[in-house]
Design a protein that fits this description.
The complex is a heterodimer. Chain A is mainly alpha-helical. Chain A contains 18 helices and no strands. Chain A is 74% helix and 0% strand. The longest helix of chain A has 32 residues. Classes of the chains: A mainly alpha, B mainly alpha. Chains A and B meet through helix 7, helix 15 and helix 17 of A and helix 5, helix 6, helix 11 and helix 13 of B.
Chain lengths: 400, 355
């Protein structure tokens, strides 16, 4: 093994460690060392065995799937906990992405100003950018929640699908805001200097990272994204198991009795909608820093709304583990079928000469049928919602 | 449908406080109608402020009424399904698209005849319309058999129906992309469609008048069907209380199938008209979805006449606003009217109080 593979393996160890902590049963004292060892060993093994091309593909796949997992967690907070039918995920996703872009890029000057127009460019650090993304998306969610959440659930679905469309239209047509129909380029990548600037950080880190080149940046970003995903997951799990989470479920299942027990039903609904919207905005921020270049076409209903719904419904609504599992499976299906449609091209060409050029839409068809099947045959998803979410009850059950 | 009992309490001495009386007055049909008119007036005033000539505003209004006809044709089908089956059908936009594209194929296949009178189209468009309407109706029944009827048997919740319809929307759209591709098409490539010069400086195309006429004819037919025939009565009974209707010997499954057929056929008609007025794109139905929902909510869910009225208001607001606003923001204008309706009177212009 050369040094590059060891360094890559070390980066892979972080997400694997987090995964191990989730999967390995037992107490903290045994779980942490076991996960640590498993993460390091597996990381080195994966980096050593897989060819570099495949490894890069796996890493960028996992990064994108993790971003989708954050989206699915946000949707789970709205739909899984509280039953909000949000068909406008794309809107919050777009708001988050463009917010962080405006916060972290610099206002273009000189020649560049002719090509790129944006309302402002603050050159803030990455963390402030994605926090701003979450906050602004949360504010947008709040503004939608006030008029619509007092009403029936189906009105929310209609209103959110409309809001997402209008947000996309705004980013498409308003040149002054975020370069309109033209893409907004050059969104900075956090810690990018680790892989391309020898003057970044202490000397021993630099000598250690020496073999990595700029194209290996995804390894760094995968670590950042999975850490944030783990943070969001822990926050949401804590929330589910808190009185707040149980109140949301009560509002969802028995609105009248929750109200009679003195819970503020509209307040609870608005809170969960805003929290979910903020998490979706955070995911948008992560996406923007990952792709570097964004424009309005990234936020069409298919990629940013529909597929997230399929993920959550497949994984299990109301279950945060299910949301993340669904995100990885569906993103795997989606990415995997791009190879499949390539293999199908000759057969398609035999049916009609135009079909191979349109084979991308076969994947849409597949995902649509998949969602239909889930709704019909397994609406609770792969990992159904837990009926008991109090850690006190769990403790009592475990002890006797 | 009676609305006489919805105003504030008539007893002034023991009546509710002033704030509540004002709130109750704001929630009446008159108030909502006045607000919709106020939005329209505001849009016209903004157009005048931008030095748009009166003739152009009048033409835009006529075009808006025509667009309202298109939105209305789609909206009636949407409101029927919404009223009878109680869920928002998000695949309705895709059915509009499907209807337009089926008609396109028929026009490609049939020999072209000379344009009829002042219109830009020949008899083959009428034939295409008559073929596309029942076909899309059949597609709608098919989707119901595969998807929604099973959900009904499981007594699934409303949200699962809505989600299933979203899945079907993407299914139909993917089919349209696969069969016809993503390019845009015209029914008649490059055929001139001159505007007629009407008095007061208005310029309107004959096709637009045809679209409006067709919308009125179809809405009248739906209205007569619902109000004057046994079948319409059965449909209204099913919408009101499906269990009771079944107990009284109404075959509710047949009524539901019929509702889907009508909904699909009207969506197809709307799609053909929309394609005739502009162009055919796979996303055309999705663009119409928001205005259609706005019209349905504004005109009270389940009420075809209301849907048409709402559609005309929304169509005019959308078109006249293009005098000073980027036309791409049409859906935003529809959305604004929808939010006003939801805030002021969620049951819409024609709904009864407390709905």
């Amino acid at each position: 093994m050369d040094q590059a593979e060891i360094v890559k393996g070390a980066f892979l160890a972080v997400p694997l460690l987090l995964l191990g902590l989730k999967i390995i049963p037992g107490r903290w004292q045994t779980r942490l060392p076991a996960a640590l060892v498993a993460g390091v060993v597996l990381g080195q093994l994966i980096a050593g065995i897989l060819p570099p091309g495949t490894l890069s593909y796996v890493v960028s796949f996992s990064t994108m799937a993790s971003i989708y997992a954050v989206l699915a967690l946000g949707l789970n907070c709205q739909w899984g906990y509280t039953g909000h039918l949000n068909f406008g995920i794309a809107g919050f996703f777009a708001v988050g992405a463009f917010t962080t872009a405006l916060f972290t890029t610099a206002q273009p000057t000189g020649m560049m100003a002719n090509y790129t127009q944006q309302a402002f460019g603050l050159e803030m650090p990455f963390l402030i950018g994605i926090l701003a993304a979450a906050v602004v998306a949360g504010v947008v969610a709040f503004l939608i929640a006030i008029p619509v959440l007092r009403l029936r659930m189906d009105f929310l679905a209609i209103a959110t699908i409309g809001i997402a469309e209008i947000i996309r239209l705004i980013f498409q047509n308003e040149r002054w805001l975020a370069n309109g129909p033209q893409p907004l380029r050059g969104i900075p990548q956090p810690l990018h200097c680790l892989v391309d600037d020898p003057a970044c950080g202490p000397a021993f880190i630099q000598t250690w990272l020496e073999p990595l080149q700029a194209r290996h940046y995804t390894f760094v970003y995968l670590v950042i994204v999975t850490l944030i995903l783990a943070l969001v997951y822990i926050l949401l799990e804590t929330a589910t198991r808190s009185p707040w989470g149980r109140m949301l479920r009560a509002v969802r299942d028995e609105e009248a009795s929750a109200g009679m027990n003195g819970k503020n039903v509209p307040g609870a609904r608005i809170q969960s909608f805003v929290v979910g919207g903020a998490i979706m905005g955070l995911a948008g921020g992560l996406y923007a820093h990952y792709t570097v270049t964004i424009d309005y076409t990234h936020f069409r209903p298919l990629f940013a709304t529909f597929i997230v719904w399929v993920m959550l419904m497949l994984g299990g609504s109301g279950n945060n583990k299910g949301a993340m599992l669904g995100a990885f499976i569906i993103w795997g299906v989606w990415s995997g079928t791009s190879f499949l449609t390539g293999a199908l091209d000759p057969a398609l060409a035999a049916i009609h000469p135009d079909l191979p050029a349109r084979s991308a839409y076969l994947r849409w068809l597949l995902v649509a049928i998949l969602l239909g099947g889930i709704v019909l045959f397994r609406p609770q998803g792969l990992i159904p919602e837990e009926s008991v979410v109090s850690r006190y009850l769990e403790r009592r059950r475990a002890s006797g | 449908m009676s609305a006489s009992t919805e105003t504030a309490s008539p007893a002034p001495t023991t009546g509710p406080r002033l704030g509540e009386r004002i709130r109750a007055a704001l929630r009446t049909r008159t108030a909502l109608g006045l607000m919709a008119l106020a939005v329209l007036a505001l849009i016209v005033l903004l157009a005048i402020a931008q030095d748009v000539s009166a003739g152009r505003i009048l033409s835009l209004t006529i075009w808006g009424i025509m667009l309202g006809g298109v939105i209305g044709l789609g909206g009636i089908g949407l409101t029927l399904v919404y009223g009878v089956l109680k869920f928002p059908n998000f695949s309705h936009g895709a059915m509009v698209t499907l209807g337009a594209y089926i008609a396109l194929t028929v026009i490609w296949v049939l020999p072209k005849s000379a344009p009829i009178g002042p219109f830009s189209f020949g008899w083959e468009l009428i034939a295409a319309l008559l073929i596309a309407m029942p076909l899309v109706g059949l597609v709608a029944i098919g989707l119901d058999r595969v998807m929604y009827r099973r959900l009904r048997k499981q007594r699934a919740s409303l949200v699962l129906f809505a989600m299933a319809s979203l899945a079907m929307a993407f299914f139909l759209r993917a089919m349209v992309y696969l069969i016809w591709g993503s390019d845009f098409h015209f029914y008649y490539e490059g055929r001139p469609n001159p505007a007629l010069d009407l008095p007061l400086g208005m310029r309107v195309q004959a096709d637009q008048l045809f679209i409006l006429g067709l919308a009125i004819v179809l809405v009248t037919a739906v209205y007569l069907l619902l109000e004057r025939t046994r079948m319409g009565k059965a449909m209204r009974a099913t919408a009101n209380n499906p269990e009771l209707a079944q107990v009284r010997g109404i075959n509710t499954e047949r009524i539901i199938a019929l509702t889907w057929a009508m909904s699909g056929a009207l969506a197809a008609a709307g799609g053909v008209m929309y394609g005739l007025a502009s162009q055919l794109r796979p996303e055309m139905g999705f663009w119409l979805l928001l205005p259609m929902f706005a019209a349905v909510i504004m005109g009270s869910i389940g009420n075809p006449r209301g849907a048409l009225a709402g559609a005309v208001i929304i169509g005019v607001a959308q078109q006249v606003s293009t005098a000073f606003l980027n036309p791409a923001y049409g859906p935003a204008v529809a959305f604004l009217l929808m939010v006003i309706t939801l805030l002021v009177r969620p049951q819409g212009l024609f709904g009864s109080a407390g709905g």
